[in-house]
Amino acid sequence: MMQKQVDENFLYLTRAGIDTHQEPVVYMREDCHVCHSEGFNAQGRVRICVEERSIIATLNIVTGDFLSHQKAALSDSAWKLLGAKEGDKARFKHAPPVESMSHVRGKLYGKPFTLEAAREIITDISQERYSDIQLSAFVTSCAANAMSLEETIAVTQAMVECGQKFAWGDGVQVLDKHCVGGLPGNRTTPIVVAIVAANGLLMPKTSSRAITSPAGTADTMETLTNVILSFEQMQKVVRDQGACLAWGGSVSLSPTDDIIIRVERALDLDSEGQLVASVISKKIAAGSTHVLIDIPVGPTAKVRSVELAERLGNLLKDTAAALGLHVQTIISDGTQPVGRGVGPALEARDILAILQNKPKAPTDLRQRALTLAATLLEMGKKCGHREGLALATRTLESGQAWQKFVAICDAQGGLREPPLAQHRYDIVAQRAGVVAMFNNRVISRLASLAGAPNAPAAGLDLHVRLGDKVEKGQPLMTLHAEAAGELEYALDFYRAHPEVLRVEEEVV
Amino acid sequence: MMQKQVDENFLYLTRAGIDTHQEPVVYMREDCHVCHSEGFNAQGRVRICVEERSIIATLNIVTGDFLSHQKAALSDSAWKLLGAKEGDKARFKHAPPVESMSHVRGKLYGKPFTLEAAREIITDISQERYSDIQLSAFVTSCAANAMSLEETIAVTQAMVECGQKFAWGDGVQVLDKHCVGGLPGNRTTPIVVAIVAANGLLMPKTSSRAITSPAGTADTMETLTNVILSFEQMQKVVRDQGACLAWGGSVSLSPTDDIIIRVERALDLDSEGQLVASVISKKIAAGSTHVLIDIPVGPTAKVRSVELAERLGNLLKDTAAALGLHVQTIISDGTQPVGRGVGPALEARDILAILQNKPKAPTDLRQRALTLAATLLEMGKKCGHREGLALATRTLESGQAWQKFVAICDAQGGLREPPLAQHRYDIVAQRAGVVAMFNNRVISRLASLAGAPNAPAAGLDLHVRLGDKVEKGQPLMTLHAEAAGELEYALDFYRAHPEVLRVEEEVV
Lengths: 508, 508
Description:
By secondary structure, chain A is α/β, with parallel strands linked by helices. The first copy, chain A, folds into 4 domains: 2-94, Barwin-like endoglucanases, CATH 2.40.40.20; 101-161, Transferase, Pyrimidine Nucleoside Phosphorylase, Chain A, domain 3 (Up-down Bundle); 175-252 and 272-412, Pyrimidine Nucleoside Phosphorylase, Chain A, domain 2 (3-Layer(aba) Sandwich); 423-504, Pyrimidine nucleoside phosphorylase-like, C-terminal domain (Aldehyde Oxidoreductase, domain 3), CATH 3.90.1170.30.
């Protein structure tokens, strides 16, 4: 009788067709024999086993009629994580407690993370054994009792260890750059990579897509070429061109990072230690040896004062150094958006204009890219100290950077023309005066509402900069959208949030 | 054009038929016009408006085919919270940030909660504006920077303010009792209420159902009478009988409490301040004036040392006093289960045996109930100091308590016979010796697996107590189940966890 019972204790798996983002969810009928015999409750944590594979998922109880008594349905994330096939026979039991949560509780009560504790926590997170509630407690514990340098190093190392790692050869110098986010339009990467690679340095760049912002570098590059490269394709492009401009999502560098970032964003909680672990772990996993990090500072940027930027810079450098990575930082102006376009295709157009040395190319974006490329050329010993800017400018103006960019795009699948939006609307100045303030966050939101990045041509074009004098009725920016509805929606938002930029009476 | 756009921006509501427990969830197609125009992402927080009503829900994106483009589906909790009807026209926008989370972030960085901050947080939680991730951060922040007495008072007061409150009349003395959980079978409440009410004191008792344990007082009472009373019915029963034994879930006392407890349980995080706020807020909301709190202490009970019990007792008393409630505490033995039965009907049978003065009634449960009733009689000034035990014993032995119990059950809808389980199995001693240890947690789990409390007759009967001598083959306990499968399932668990009780060689 017992054997029989055990053999009957399964359900067939099916796809729920529900995207619960990262958290794996299983849907089971309240009155199915497994729920009944196991005593499962809604929101309970359940271990699902198919043959030798198993995952832990959060249970949602089906009270409606859409699921058979003989089936359990999995969310998209659970389906993928388990590697399930339609009709797989699965067994279910209460998930065991996640042991590493004891370290999180310890941290809450003031006990610092050891390397061993960090490894256990990060491994469990990467295996998606933490529920959202548990992830939040981990993130919160790191903020409540701020991580020391030692703890930050331990967490960073643990994050590196549990992902894929690129190796570009012993003793090879591998350059990279990173920006501590927050500035709309600040799309320097494609220009910097082209200049640096044109000088024979290795820069295998992987970038992210936007999550809440109107564009990530991968979104922008995707309007120009293919960015979805396998590990092997990426290696070939880098071998041939010395660089790539690929989406990092197809390679599994520091997989815990995306999971943690999502929870931090939901809590609006920026823990410095977590930010450092996130950035440094990804760079080490990417096989980088020399990294330049741009920290824009401004009242509506991510970092709001030079003091905070310096402290963050030191923590970045010290953590990196402990793990054998050389990091330099640049503190830059974060008071207003960069370039003209905000949104994938509009930013791509700015990049092309700069690389092609068009007279109307936005000078601020050009200057920022040159400064960063200059520092990387110096870090890579392609020129002496303070000679980088001249070399970078020469590389750009001579067309070598443009040639390298075209070659990289060709290697990735060919250069293409970024799309143009059909629907546009000029937002004009309601008064004459001087442009006195930009709110970066509201500008990003406005471009997102117009459809960016899902609609690649959507976003906005800024026609003015801080300090510009404007006449009443003069266009301040143009909204771009692929659908009339989206344009109207962004406009509604603009009307409710006129603080996107402020025109003040000129102080004489 | 704009007006048109706004008018088209709705979906019809339907029930998803999914129980996501407390967190409200909305299911929308990725490619529906609202997701598209609003730029919603999976796990985003969305405000759903129907006419003047609105709720905030977490978005799950439907990637399958089961939902129409014109519809959005709501989880059971979202449906209930919004008061939705099939086909309601709903509008959707990004949920605004929850402002009170700034106090949670403040607490994380060491800023204590003010009463104002506590009010804003608790109001938002009670309106279900916090996601699970945010709730976890709140609970974690209370544990990381333990709440002071002042903060505990503030949170307790805020919890009282945002629920329903019972008023039994000015200057009326209202008695209550509470047990800081953890002991299987410790079902003293029905006996205590009968004795206290038989002496003319007011004791309008509301109890909870089990969440993870094999029985709550409401589950046990439900095998004997109806416990689902409206506020008006409850008032009538109390007016006529001086007491009731009702389920507290139908009245909304301290509604935030259940939400917070669920997250604490998921984190296995017992914050003392939260425990105190939970207990005291419910008692004040119930209109109690004098409360006796039982704190069992034992290695497998909730409180593990007398020192911790005393500290907890003081925090309970001081918080209650600040809010005008008189609390006394009793520290009791928590080393083993109480009575014989564990599970709703088996516990009900023990209660009946005691109230009916049956010779075989379990003496430990009887003694605990008498001790608690005695203290309440003294608190209620029905007798002098140290005269309570004699009065309680007289009330029980004379049959007055039994008469009062029958009268209360009659007023609630009539006394009934608790059910008997069809399937039983004796677990016998594998060796001769002395019963040396009980694991309360494993015993609770065993009774739950046998089906309690969903199967009211399920659970287990203990035949031995600590220190009892047993022969090899002598029954130690009997498992009760309503289905053969559940019996086998509990047995499987027992075989894997023989530490439920330990028989050792007798030390002479």
